[in-house]
Amino acid sequence: MKKLVFFIAALAIVSCKSEPKDYVTLSGEITDKNSDSVVVRSRTYSKTIKVNEDGTFRDTLKVEKGVYSFFDGSESASIFLENGYDINMTLDTKMFDETIKYSGNGSENNNFLAAKSLLEEKLFDQDFSNLDKAGLETTFEKIKTDLTEFINSNKGVDTTVINNSIKGLERSIDGNKNYFMGIAQLKEDLPKGSKSPTFEKYENYKGGTTSLSDLKGKYVYVDVWATWCGPCKREIPFLKEVEKKYHGKNIEFVSMSIDAAKDHAKWKAMVADKELGGVQLFAPSDWKSQFVQDYKIKGIPRFLLIDPNGNIVTPSAPRPSDEALIKLFDQENI
Q1: What distance in Å separates the CA atoms of residue 67 and residue 58, rounded to the nearest whole number?
Q2: Quick one: 321 exposed, middle or buried, by C-beta within 10 A (0-12, 13-18, 19+)?
Q3: Does 213 have pLDDT greater than 90?
Q4: Less packed terminus of the chain by CB within 10 Å, N or C?
Q5: Catalytic site residue 16?
Q6: pLDDT tens track for 152-210
Q7: How many alpha carbons lie under 13 Å from residue 210 in its C-beta half-sphere?
Q8: pLDDT grade, residue 15 (50/70/90)?
Q9: How far apart are CA 302 and CA 315, in angstroms?
């Protein structure tokens, strides 16, 4: 009888043990929240989580083990999730990447991702534009070495996170290097001081036509864009600020749309709706326009700077959102 009682008691203890959770518990607190919700998503999954007035949030998610994107309405971060995790995160939107911290079950993998993101930001936040091809090769090889050493030094991190990080590193290095190699090639093909390609009688939003020669005597900062280009539109507020700062200076700001002819009305509507300033032009043959082809433009937005004599300052100028643009203008004494 005693044996039977003992067996029943033992069985009760075993049955009271909690089963592994088949979901993730994700909670957190956001200082200066950007939105009333956050989103966790991948290519095959999406979950929107309500953010309370005090910046706190909490929800459960059933997921496939892997790396997801966490969006707060303005910025994003990579987050590693696996069912059974109970993760709490804190962040301040004013210093998004610098302040993300994780605690709880699963935090070690996510604190690794946060630290890796900060290191990448530091290593890639350099002025690559003045490097030649040999300099770019050396610089990107050093970046690859530093990031690889960091990834491999974190022995306690899940192998899925490590493998994903290594694959992502290769894509990031190749993408950035190829981009700046292209810029270096551009500067060889279109060197500073050489005669700039010209545009002739492009339609002006305000009426009539405009040619590059009409702007001679002033610097010309050209923004090549289109109404369908998201990154182009994100630069608009910054471009307006730069135009305001340099109003009355010896520079003209030219925005050249390469929308297709069928989207001509969309171009005019957006110029009006966004109250775009400067000289608004419509290229006659979109990507095949002579000026676009002569400057070897294969992606937008693209920014160029031409001097008062019609010579190239740079065939790939910094974007309006980049502080390097003001430094460039200062160097030219604009």
Answers
A1: 19
A2: middle
A3: yes
A4: N
A5: no
A6: 999 889 999 999 999 999 899 998 898 889 888 999 999 999 999 999 999 999 999 99
A7: 21
A8: very low
A9: 9
Q: How far apart are CA 278 and CA 14, in angstroms?
A: 75
Tell me if the pTM is above 0.85.
Answer: no
Q: Give the contacts of 10 (CB within 8 A, at least 6 positions apart).
A: none
Q: Give every CB contact of residue 228 below 8 A, 6+ residues apart in sequence.
A: 259, 263
Sign, CA dihedral 206-274-315-182, equals negative
226 close to 332: Cβ distance less than 8 angstroms: no
Rg (CA), the chain: 27
The partner residues of 78 in beta bridges, in order of sequence, read 69
For this structure, is 229 an active site residue? Answer: yes
Per-residue burial over 9-23, b = 16 or more CB atoms within 10 Å of its CB, e = otherwise: eeeeeeeeeeeeeee
Cβ-Cβ contacts under 8 Å for 164 (sequence gap 6 or more): 66, 67
Query: Catalytic one among 183, 229, 260, 326?
Result: 229
Given the residues 136, 151, 232, 276, select the one marked as catalytic: 232
Nearest-angstrom CA–CA distance, 102 and 76: 15
Instruction: Provide the Cα torsion 324, 326, 328, 333; round to 10°.
Output: -160
Cα separations in angstroms, 3 against 7, 13, 15, 54, 113: 6, 15, 18, 56, 52
Query: Could you read off the pLDDT of 111-146 as tens digits, one per residue?
Result: 999 999 999 989 988 878 778 899 999 999 999 999
Strands 24-31 and 86-92 turn out to be: parallel
Q: Which of 68, 154, 144 is nearest to 112 (CA)?
A: 154
Specify whether the CB–CB gap between 107 and 161 falls below 8 A.
Answer: no
Euclidean distance between the first and final Cα of the chain, in Å? 98
